[in-house]
Write a structure and sequence with these properties.
about 250 residues, alpha+beta, seven-stranded mixed sheet, four-stranded antiparallel sheet, 13 strands
């Protein structure tokens, strides 16, 4: 993983951009003032993410893939989702008359609202995995999260951290920015010289903004981002801010 860090001055870009057409009216609020070239990277990531996640996947239909299906271990990555996501998927499948098996895709709790699931990242789609498929790939469950994070970091392009007045936006141009929460080495005081504990908002898989727990203006700005995304798009990863304490991500009240 390579990382670049830039401070974006007040003349360096825009605070809010409304995107129509291909993004179907989804309004992306950019809290850190950034260059238009960086914004274009983010928009391409949103488009790619929505296209890949719309591909048929067994978790989305409630059906298991064939038993012969095997996945390369270096392409297994973590995916953050609502902890109740498997139940929601099964309910949606039942409403469509699709009979689901007794198993669910494998996941581990991150906190009371979010869980870490695992997927095979193909260039054309993302395929969520069952426990036996993970074990068949030769990855022990005990080391799954660490291995999947290493895989993810090896796959990511250079990461930029854009800073403006105590608020930071992490940009990788992919659909995995939120999963950087799982990389403990990423969250250092040198990278994020904030006031207080690290607080993040991840309203979408591809959106990650950071501020400090003792920065009222920064907290208001990232809460505003979450509210705007929820209002305009409806379906978000989580409405909650998360705070990093004792190496864990807790709900920030």
């Amino acid at each position: 993983m390579r990382l670049r860090q830039r401070d974006v001055g007040s003349n360096g870009g825009v605070a809010m951009v409304s995107v129509q057409g291909a993004l179907l009216g989804f309004e992306i609020v950019i809290l850190t003032l950034m260059a238009l070239t960086v914004l274009a990277v983010i928009l391409r990531a949103v488009s790619r993410f929505r296209q890949r996640m719309s591909q048929p996947a067994d978790a989305a239909t409630g059906r298991r893939p064939p038993e012969r299906t095997r996945f390369p271990p270096d392409r297994i990555v973590p995916i953050l989702r609502d902890a109740a996501w498997p139940t929601q998927v099964r309910s949606a499948a039942a409403e469509r008359g699709i009979a689901a098996g007794n198993e669910e895709v494998y996941g581990e709790p991150l906190n009371e609202h979010l869980a870490v699931f695992y997927a095979y990242d193909h260039d054309a789609f993302i395929h969520h995995l069952y426990r036996d498929q993970i074990e068949a790939a030769g990855i022990p469950i005990a080391g799954l999260r660490a291995r999947s994070v290493r895989n993810l970091l090896a796959m990511l392009p250079p990461i930029e951290v854009l800073a403006h007045d105590g608020v930071y936006q992490v940009v990788a141009g992919t659909c995995y920015e939120a999963c950087l929460l799982l990389d403990d080495s990423f969250w250092t005081p040198e990278r994020f010289p904030i006031d207080g504990d690290i607080v993040v908002a991840i309203p979408r898989q591809e959106v990650l903004v950071v501020t400090g727990s003792r920065n009222p203006d920064g907290l208001a700005r990232i809460r505003g981002l979450v509210a705007d995304v929820e209002q305009e798009f409806g379906d978000i990863l989580t409405p909650h801010l998360l705070v990093r304490r004792d190496g864990r991500w807790q709900i920030f009240e």
